[in-house]
Amino acid sequence: MKPGDTLTESTAATAADTTTEPAIVFDRVGVRYGGGRKTTVALADFTLRVAAGETVALLGPSGSGKSTALKALAGFVRPTSGAVRLAGRDVTDLSPAKRGIGVVVQSYALFPHMTVHGNVAFGLKSHRVPRRDIEGRVREALGMVGMAEYAKRLPRELSGGQQQRVAIARALAIRPKVLLLDEPLAALDAQLRQSMLGELQQLRKALPDTAMLYVTHDQSEALALADRIAVMRDARLVDIDTAENLWQRPPTGFTAAFLGGANLLPCTVNRVSGGAGLVTVGSHTLRTQAPKPGVGQQDWAPDATALLCVRPHTVRIGAVGERDALRGTVLSSVWRGASTRLRISVDGLPEELAVDVPGHPAAEVGAVIGVLFPDPAGVLIPATVGAESLPAAPNSGSGQTGARA
Ligand code: ADP
Fold this sequence. Notes:
The protein is built from 8 helices and 20 strands. It has helices spanning 66-74, 116-126, 131-144, 160-173, 190-206, 219-225, 243-248, 253-258, and strands spanning 24-33, 40-50, 55-59, 81-86, 89-90, 101-105, 178-182, 211-216, 228-233, 236-242, 263-273, 276-281, 284-289, 305-310, 316-318, 326-335, 339-346, 353-358, 368-372, 378-382. It has a 6-stranded mixed sheet, with helices on both faces. It has a 5-stranded mixed barrel with strand order 11-12-13-20-14.
């Protein structure tokens, strides 16, 4: 796959079979903002299906089109092309209120002059829920997020985390089949974010039939919550799969670097068979995993150029002269608490290597050390994404960031 190519899910979206219609379908959706020279393509040829009960995270750097996708589904933005469907029904031209979707945004968007109760009830009234049902539904929704006793408070009398819980309760009160969350934790401090993440996991379990689309630029949120992760870049879907698969066998350099951080070492394929192979990196020969390339990508051919993806935490440092150790010089060392990120110039490798070692080792800048790759050293990735266009992976506090960041 070339950069800029659009990934279309192998089972293309179709409205034909209504018995198995997914809860959410984006069918080749395009969105442009503005006109003339100022046109921005915010979403291009975007196809995605989310099943009832499934949570998909839209993960990507700022400006990659994640929020626009959510807005197109919620009805806040009209697609320029393509269609959005909910449980088989084309809702592309339906007003937001008639879609029955629960939406939670980063800024909470609560009415400041209304109590917690009023805010949740407002959503129900605008969805024309009968008056006699409103009281019970408000109580139920506030109960789900542990806010029942705060019903009489105003938003300004609540912490950020509590306000976000109210916003979630407001979205849940309409008992939506589809719940959209746009960076819901981004405005919270790191500690609160962790505890809210746990609460969102609980909520997911409590709503086994609800389809969720969760927008984030934070890989740790996507890994914690999503059944599948859709990686976005420049208005397009780049890769989509389970978190496990994307992590273990990233199909593209972009996803490798964005999800978890990676060294992407240019290499030449020597030979590949049965999912494993040998590659030449600089003046070294290393063993690698070599999963079958994805649809539209060429199989691994001898002498082909590729990228060897090596996760920083899988490399070990030791003494020079240790068996199988390559000789390296420490270029920088940044202690991060649980681990230390070293940048190492390894003799015979074309690029410097990022290595995460546990704790706070005594590895001074300039020290000469032994560098031990795991066996296999990493996983092979098609060389379709140039180094210049790799993302700066977000520092999500997970202790691993993009090696090129
Ligand atoms: P993300 O959610 O991934 O950060 P967005 O969907 O918000 O990305 O934005 C995608 C692109 O569309 C960006 O280039 C952004 O600047 C642009 N964009 C978003 N909203 C508007 C708007 N209302 N008018 C013009 N351009 C917009």
